[in-house]
Amino acid sequence: MTTRKKNIILTAVALSALTVSLPVTEAAPVSSGGGQSGALEEYSLDEIVVTATRTEKRDVDVPMSTDVITREEIERGGAQNAAQIIQKVNGVSFASFAPMGASMGTMINKATIRGIDNGTLVMVNGNPISGRGLYNLQEIPADSIERVEIVKGGGSVLYGSEAMAGVINIITKKGPDNNWTLGFGNYGQQKYHVNVGAKEGNQSITAFYDVNKWDRHNNASNSDMESVVPANNGQSLGVQQFNVRDIKNESLGLTWQANPRLNVTYGHYDATVSYDKYIKSLTALGVASPSRLHAGELIYDRKYTTVRDTVQVNYRDKAWEGSAYYNVSTIESDGDTWRKDVTKGTRRDLVKTYERYNTKEKHINYGVDGQHEWKLGDKGSLILGLAGKHEVYRVLPTVYTKTGREYERNQWGVFGQWEQTMDEKNKFILGARETWTSGTTWNKNYSDFSASGQFIHSLDKDSNLYLNISQSFIMPQFGQMFPASATGTSNPNLKPQKGINYEIGWKNLSGGHMWKAALFHQDIKDNISAQVNRAGGLSWTYKNEDFRNTGFEFSCDITGKNGFSYNYGLTLQNPEVKSTGKGYWDRKFGKIQLVGGMNYQRDKMKAALTFSYLADRVQTPSDEHSFRTKPYLLTTLTLGYSPDAWSEINLKVDNLLNRRDNTMNSSSAWYTPGINYLLSYTQKF
Question: How far is CA 16 from the centre of its chain?
């Protein structure tokens, strides 16, 4: 490492030590994914984590790298949705095409954990919400979230496919909460939220409605229009510019808490966004046609719509835990195209034309998950569980796709976990899962056996060392085998993605500090990734490749005095990918990540300043060598004032330094908007 890089790291750490998270106050008992209150009280420096081991444990006792964002931290941070909540977590990043996390149909904004951008299992109340690996965190409003638990490292033994990099479990509010919020800001930002609830005895019902809007973000992306014909391959036809407009995330939810053990939730999410692509400039190669285009002309205008409905039933008591869920989502891309690429001899032209672009697909998955826990004397416990789900993938008819296609399968899993205390200092946890598919449309089934082991050595009651070795896997998704887009090439012979995570860690709670450190290594075989083919015309397909990463994470949360508290984190890593097309190990993502925050809350005032810095970065095309790109620095300042116990005024300011940062890690570059703010007023009733 060069002296310059060392100075950057030392300076950033020193600055982050002056910043932070919010003060630590006693909170209510933890609400698990099943919705019941646990017997243990939680504190912001010593959270109770359920997701990591499917049992209630203090964070310091969990033998995995974990982060918990509480309701108080969410409110102080000013996040509008789940995507913004996780954006500044150590070892985690959330790439975004546009403000408010607006995605481009199936090209979603991905939560990347430790450099793995296709292995995050997203759950709500312990139930998966994604269809064929697609999720939209921006659809889940922050005002509806009680807490977020993040587990880094393999999680497939307990939760099945897709948990290669880790698990994000979003736990929603269950109790009554009556308030409304109205907010406005620059870039045409608007926020409307109302939450109502009632409680009688052990029963309660809560409902919310949430709308967030963003008018326009011009010049969100610039890129070369490269020739894809062999005669001119790699030559630029000009520069194209993307503008984003009419972003709208609308959601509503309903939760019925029947008793402390049983709850039912319903959620509806509707997200829309429009992307316009213009010709910014042209080269001679791109203007040879008699029907030539000119700079400033519109190439295409597309609207992307995602509609999702979810229903969950969750039950949990001292020994039994079970859930049933139903998810259905429809994703559509629709728009007009006014440019066509043609070849004349050795030349490539952009010719004016018109054609309709329209793709539409539907994902349905429903399933059950249940477990029972037995106590094995005073020192041991055993969990056995069963999970099953049915998956449906439909390519719906459109003006482009005249006939629809449908694929189905069942996915089953049997899992177990044995935890045993050996003596007052040492404990181990062993887990295993067998997963298999059945009833596939083309009679091509998969199976996988994964195992995990954790060893915990207690230094004292608030300090532990641990070793974690976990296998994980991802079953190929229908949309990867049979893409809905006309440019997508089918690959029904994808192999399941398999990997293993090695981690040695230390956690310590003392003197108002929560220290965490972890050294990790990840190996993934047959990593499923989209690869572009430019020969003879632009197309893409999903293929298997390999991935590896070795790194170190360190973080500290500090309870300060006089209403102050702080947090900072550092991740050093080296993600690399090896595709069949390249044949060599290529860099990916970024090597250095720094996060931090400073928080203040006292009397009627509160404030929070947070940042995430990703440096030594590269962008990695699927068919070309990676290339360096500048670091990004994401900053957020929130200020709050409560005139009385029933009202609150909040100001949230993003991108304080007015930077134009690219948050993507693939070949394309999508940039953050300039400094932007949202001023909101909340009234409780």
Answer: 24
